[in-house]
Structure formats: C-alpha cells, structure tokens
Amino acid sequence: MTETALAKGSVWIRAALGTDLPEIMALERECFSNDAWSESAMQGELHSEHTSYFVAMLNQSPNRDVLIGYAGLSKVSGSDQSDVQTIAVNAKYRGLGLGRRLMEHLLSVAKLKLATSVFLEVRADNPVAHGLYLSLGFKDIRTIKNYYQPDNVDAIVMQLDIPRDPVHEPIVLGIESTCDETGIGIVRGTKLLANVISSSMDLHARFGGVVPEIAARAHLEALQPTLQQALAESGLKLADLDAIAVANGPGLGGALMVGVGAAKALAVGLGKPIYAVNHLVGHVGADILERGEVEVPTIALLVSGGHTSLLLVRNLLDDVELLGETIDDAAGEAFDKVARLLGLKYPGGPEIDRAAVGGDPKAIRFPRGLTLPKDMEKHRYDFSFSGLKTAVARWVEVAVDSGQEVPIADVAASFREAVVDVLVTKAVNACLDNNVPRLLLGGGVVANARLREVAAERCAKNGIELRIPAFSLCTDNGAMIAALGAQLVMAGREPSMLSFGADSTLPVTTVQTLS
Amino acid sequence: MTQITLSIDTTSGTSVSITQGEGALAFVSQPNGLKHAETIGDSIAKVLKNAELNPGDIDVVAVGRGPALFTGLRVGIAAAIMFAQAVDAKLVGVVSHDAIALEKYRLDASLPEQPLFIYTDARRGEIYWALYGGLDHHGLPILLAGPSVGKHQQVVDDLTMVHGQITEVTGAAFATWIGRAAALQQAAGVASDDVTALYLRAPDATEPNPNKAFGKRVSS
What we know:
- Chain A is built from 18 helices and 18 strands.
- By secondary structure, chain A is an alpha/beta fold.
- In chain A, β9 (181-188) and β10 form a beta hairpin.
C-alpha cells in the first residue's frame, strides 16, 4: 500500500452502520489490545443519539471494501462541547494521512453541530497522535495521571476551540394584526429592539368581545403611528431593515389582511424579502427574545381571547404539532362572558382576577370540561369552556331565584379555578405523556396571576421547567413575529412569495407560508 | 420634472398604476374583488417593473379611499401608507368616486349638462354614490352631494327633486384615474394626505344584552 493509492480515492469515509460492528471490533482489539472496548459498549456508541461514527473503507476490488479505520464524535444537543470518543487506523495504513482525514471529518461534523470546543484524550506515550492533534490546532490543557490502565499511562487532555462563523444577525420588522392588537416589533437576530403594541381593546369593551370589523378598522388607523413608534424605539430607519415578517394567520380575516397588505407594500417599497409566519408559532418564538433560543422539545400552552391551544414543538421551524385546542370558546372568551354575567367589565380576565380576591376557589365545584374518562379518550388535549360558562350562569340563576345574595368573589374564584385547573392539568399531561420536560406559556390569558401560580406549582411538582416570557411578549405582539422571521432568515430559508394570502385557519404545522 | 405617482385602488378589484401627469406609464389590474391581500404585493412589484422604475423613483403615492366594501378597501390603503413610508413619498388620498367622475368627464365631452350621478355597488341592496356638477377651473369634478350610501331608487328620487334630471353612471375606479385626480388636486393645491377609509357604514355590532344572554342580570 502506498500513499498514492490512498490519495487516488480508493479510501473513502462514510457514516458507520450497525453492520460495520464486527470489522470495527476486530480493529478495536488489534489497536487497543489492552483496553479495548467491549462489543456491547461499541454497539452502544454506534447507536447513541449523541454520537457520530465514521469508517474509512479501502476499496480493494470492485466488490470488496475493507474497513481500515474508524472514528467517533460525541455531541450532546444543547451543549457547546464535543468529544472525540475514539479513533483507530489499521497499523498497515498508518502514516498515510488517514488519521488526519478522519479527524478533519469529525471536526467538520462538530462544527456543523455548532460545537464551540472539541475535547480529546491522548496517551502520553503516543507522540505521533499527539503531534497530529497539535497540528490540527488542539492544545494541551491538562494531564490525567495513570488514566490508561492497565498500562499506567497518563492521558493528555487536549482542546480545540472552533470559532463560530460570524452569524449575520438580520434586522427584521414584524407585523402582527391577527386580532385586536396592532403590533410592530423589530429584532436584530435574537435581540429585541422594539415592541410597540396598539390595542383596540377599549373600542370592543361595550360589545363584550372583539368585534372583527372594529378590530380591522383600528389596525388600519394604527399602522402608521405604530410603525413610527417602533422605528423611534429601535433608533433605526426603514432602510436598516433586512427583512419583513408578517403573521398571515390564524386570526380574523379582515384584520389579517390589513397586516398582510401593509407588510407586502413595505417589502416591495424597501426591496426586502418578506416572510409570512404563523401567529401561534410566533407565540412560541417569543421565548427567543428572552433566552436566545426556544429550548426544544417543549410543550406550549397558548391561551388568549381567540385561542386555547396545546402544541408540541420539537423544532420551531420544522416540527410543530397541534396536540389539542378548544372545541368551543377560547379561555379568554370564557373569562369575558362570565365577567359579563357577573356584571363585570371587559376584558373579563383582569376583572375576574380582581373580583376573586378573598373568594374561595373551592366554594363551588364547577365542571372541568373534557376531563371525564370518556372525554379524555377522544379529547385528551382538547378544551371546552362553553359548558363551564353555562354552569356558572345556572348557578348564579339558582342563587338569584332563591333570593340569595350572589357571592361574587366565590363564584369568580371558583370559575377561575376551574379554567386554570383544566388548562394546567392538560398541559402537564402533555409534558408527561410526551416525555417533554418543558412547558412554555403564551397568549394574553397568561396575565392571569392564578394561571401562572398553578402552572408554577404543578410544573415544579412534576419536574417540568416552566417558561413564561414577559407579558409584553406573551400578548399578541409584532416582536415575536419578527423573532420567528429572523430565525427563518438565519436558517437560510427562502423568503415567501408575494402571492401568499391571509389564512384565518392557518394550521400550526405551517410555520411559514411560502406562496 | 413632473412627479411620478404610484396609485392604488382596491375599491373593487386590485388596481395599481404609475402615472406622470396625465400619462400612465404602467398599470396592473386584477378584477377579482376577493383576492386583494394576495394580489397587492405582486401588483406593485409588477407595475414598477413594467414602468422600469425603482421604488425610490416614486414621488407620490395616491390611494382610493372608497367609499367601498371594507375588507378590500383597507388592503389598498394599508399598502399605500406603508409604501409611501418605505420610499419616503408624499401620500395623497382620493375619493374613488371623484376619480370616476373625472374620468367620465374627461372621456365623454358629450355628457349632458345635467349633474353626473356616480354609483357603485354597496351590497345589501344599496349603492355608494356621489353627485357631480361638471369640472371646475382646475379641471376637478365639482361635488354636489355625497359621497354617501343608500337605496338606489330612493337616492335618485331625492336627488332629482333637488337637482332635476341627473345622468347615472356606474363603474369601478381604476388606479390610473386616482393618479390623475391626485395630480390635478396637487396642482390645484387641494390634495389631502387624509387616507381614512370611507366606510360610510358603522361596523356590524350590537351591544350584548346580559338579560338575554344569561337569563338574569346579576349585580354585586
């Protein structure tokens, strides 16, 4: 075997397969006679979700490849560190640059997996390998005495820092107009620069709920001032923007169309790309602005006047699953309706909260929608608040008929407890069933103190990490839309075509509408 | 140098045009009265391309304010506001019926002397209308009554009582006409940056009656 033969491409490197195990073990025993890994340990390595193993195959004849080397890298997702697990080259083929090729392969994988440092241990009595690693840029960081047994040989721990490619952090403006808030936010990469929200809530107050036409009219009037304020807050000019993002659904059709029309004209006028993004996934993306990323997998419970949805997010841009949603009223709507029934103002959430002060949440056992065993079979993660609303109405009616004074505080506290209980129970179930250790809350109802309190209690009890972004990022806002748009830009996704429409029933599986 | 105007009208379909004075450099018209949000972006991009202009070449953005059906109307106005902002152009709002009247007078010199009644469909058995009495010395239509919304026959009967015989004309506004009207208004010094939508109808919404919704009102 000569160096020329290797250079000719007769040796190729590919990902290791389960079927390579016998040949790998043969080489393992040959190279590490004293301290070879067992076959089961090697098998575990090859199949671990954290490792990437590669083999060097020598093409001896047209139909015969022989394994002459292998190497493995470990990188736990979420960690910046990566470890070289092992590397071995058949003694007959050493000194031909194959070890370097395998190492370079591992390092490119580490870089792809966004590791910022790679560690390895090398026998202190192997100057050739040590020299190779030094030449690849590794540095000695410490020595572990008698690490290799039974030979009593020291290990030199080495580290290579991989400079992260300077990621261009795009400046993205996001427009949100799905319901009654006109939101314009600006982000740079994962950093919040401006988040301006103009709400038409007061205009809906006397109707006891959002009136779509009033919301749409208000969006049109709010556009220009909201944009001006967002630019002022960020200290940027429109020319500084790299892209426009807009929520094109789900939401109220007429309201959505204002945002979509505005965003498109802005994009064409500025000559910048546009990204049509999903409003609900935007709520999940809000966490990026506080943490730099959305840790996945996560369950997301989104509760507002328009939505009550449980999502399983395995990947923010590519894998969002709707586990369940309300089959009738949204939770926020239930608060509004019950508030009205109790003679309280709109919006109902904060009013019920105030009325519930001093009330006994256990005074009245209101029904928990879709929690009976038969319902749980079909609607494990779905919600229903319509029956609850009726139950409160009936209870109050009976009390009034019997001449009692209605204990507003107890009714408010008991009603709120029923809503919160069912929301949190189902969200925690979703975490436990799917083995997801995280729960993210979003939507305007997150402002409800009792919801936050119960979620915190039950998440702590079940070892679930609870994330609640700041309220200005929980309620409908443009910053979360911009943040999701920026993720798409940074992931190198194609912009949306200008032909996309507003989709009032856009499914959560469509994170970006392309056309 | 005569200003270059990009005009948008979404009172019926989606219509976008680039004009310079009286002349149209390019226009794109999509008659579909439902797909405003889908169409608006491509329409603006296409009209710029056809006119071989960059967004930055636009000096004025004119938009039809209606009266018209709400949903589509808003898309055009929202787009006009944002486009003007993006290219730092002057924004001009034009009553769409003024633009239709201007065009009718412009095209048809044989129009009778009697007032011109411009109307468009407002659904629910009603029309959006405005009445004009010729062109003023700036060449702009003189508004006699409206714009307003009402039952066609009723409106015509009422107007005839006051103004005598009227000539009835219907038709959709086109962006090119909006652009011409805006240019004349600017020359006359009467152009307005008010782009408020002319809805002429209150939103459909009724205040809830708690007694009806829940049987009994409760007060604490």
